[in-house]
Design goal:
Strand order of the largest sheet: 1-2-3-4
Number of domains: 2
Number of strands: 4
Number of helices: 6
Largest sheet: 4 strands, antiparallel
Radius of gyration: 30 Å
Helix content: 55-70%
């Protein structure tokens, strides 16, 4: 059984009653994870729980983990889950997916840096345009460079060019 199959099979109420807790009509039990609980502070929902006293929350696996002091694998197996040894091809597929994700993140970062650099160039050219004498050679060079950077800015940000 997979993790999702187990979650479909067991409700949070069933798991809680295994440990001797019986939710009241509102679905509350005394929290087993902190001391000094005079009134029930843990709300039991269909698929998860939340303690309004100590902030503990999670699904059926988290509850079993905290109650028994075990890891996820043991909690999974306690509920009938079966771990299969991953094959080479599945490990390779996971590796490739992680590499593709890593490459996309790097590309996003490079694109972000390009946009920042482009925006800085635009600011510099605009500043020079304001300082230069209108229609002088420097002003014309800055104007042309600014138009080119604005065009690149539109391309980098997926905007329509004004040209």
């Amino acid at each position: 059984m997979t993790k999702e199959d187990i979650k479909q099979t067991y409700s949070m109420r069933e798991i809680v009653t295994r440990y001797g807790f019986y939710p009241n009509r509102a679905g509350f039990i005394p929290c087993p994870f902190h001391k000094g609980d005079r009134e029930a502070s843990m709300k039991i929902y269909d698929k998860d729980f939340h303690c309004f006293g100590c902030g503990a929350h999670g699904d059926i696996f988290a509850f079993i983990q905290q109650m028994d002091g075990i890891g996820f694998k043991e909690a999974f197996q306690a509920l009938g889950g079966i771990y299969e040894k991953p094959s080479f091809s599945s490990n390779l597929a996971i590796y490739r997916a992680n590499k593709r994700k890593e490459m996309r993140e790097k590309q996003r970062e490079r694109d972000k840096q390009k946009r920042l650099l482009n925006a800085k160039k635009i600011d510099i050219y605009r500043e020079y345009l304001q300082r230069a004498k209108p229609l002088s050679e420097v002003w014309c060079d800055c104007y042309n460079a600014l138009q080119l950077e604005l065009y690149r800015h539109a391309e980098l940000n997926g905007l329509e060019s004004r040209w």
